[in-house]
Amino acid sequence: MTEINELAAENYDQFPNTSQPDCFVPLQDGTVCLYNQATADILFDQISSYGPRGYSDMLCALTLMILTFYFVTSSDSGSFVVDILPSNGHPDPPVFQRVFWSFTEGATAIALLYSGNNAKDPDAALKALQAASIITGLPYTFVMFWCSQSLVILCQEENGGLDPDRKAFSTFIFNAKNIVLHLKNTAVPGLTMGRAVVHVGKWPFSGLGPGVTFGLWTGAFSLLYYMAIIVTICTAALYQWALIGCMFYIGFGTFVGLLRNHMRVKHFIEHGDIATDLLCGIFAPMFTLSQIEAQFTVPIENKKKNDDLEVKEGNENI
Fold this sequence. Notes:
Structural class: mainly alpha
Number of helices: 12
Largest sheet: none
Shape: elongated
Number of strands: 0
Radius of gyration: 32 Å
Distance between the termini: 115 Å
Low-confidence stretches: 11-15, 309-315
């Protein structure tokens, strides 16, 4: 009986307080706490079920060491990848630069964790770190979309599906020389959009004449654009207004993308597709409108037909 009591004292929690209710039954140290399910403590609760307190404490310490090595190696791998990017893809970038990025990432994580130090919620610091990583990584998601699309286009050019010298817009979309057009299209984008509708034709109300068509579409596009701004400002009073403002803006950007697509068709521009047009219209509307406006002065010319005519005339001369 003495040996049984000693074993019980080793494996069971001891509660010196004798005022426990009659229905209270002490549990073994290794029993997993069900209230910690789906939280950060579940790992250590699970480890504690593998043996008595001394053994489970050793496993917890070993687990902490393994987690530390895991995060350190993950940070080192991330720093190596970041180091390759500014080194123009060099497979063996400078070590000092790699150390610099490691310290930069660590300092950023420490700052974000410390920012929630005085919060009431103990998980506020970790939530701030997670939110910051998602917010900073979201723009690169769209960059990856464009990189994937560029890879597809490159493969099509390599196998002959697309002509590498195919016709493009007269100006690049991000053109610093058109800074005046960028500012104008940021303030009054409806004017350029109305002119584009008249230029490309085949839009509703085009049969009413250029002046009426320009006035109707300029008013409609301007209303959509300014409503997006006004409703977004109302977000300061009620957050839900942001959803309606986003709806107005996406509609405006979609129209800008459709106009870019129709300009490509009108001028026989083979660079780009409808997906690219919509992305440009939504994420860079003022630059897209400046590119469209610069295209107004370019004569409409079908390069492919002209090339076919030159080949035909050359064969006849032969």
